[in-house]
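Thread title: Can someone regenerate the structure for this chain?

I was given the following input by a collaborator and told the matching structure tokens would be attached. They weren't. Posting the sequence so someone can regenerate them.
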Amino acid sequence: MRKPVNLNQFRKQKARADKRTRADENAVKFGRSKAEKSLDTVRVEKAARDLDGKKRE
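Best answer:
Regenerated them for you:
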């Protein structure tokens, strides 16, 4: 005979797996490292400085 299945444990395992896959999707969609964020910030600041330097008065 087969061992009986605890439905509560099965439900919780499925919920954990769903949560994990959703987290992985969000990490791909939104996740960036701190270095990437700071690099973007530096690039935006440099572009603003370059643009300000080329303005005529």
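DSSP finds two helices and no strands in the chain.
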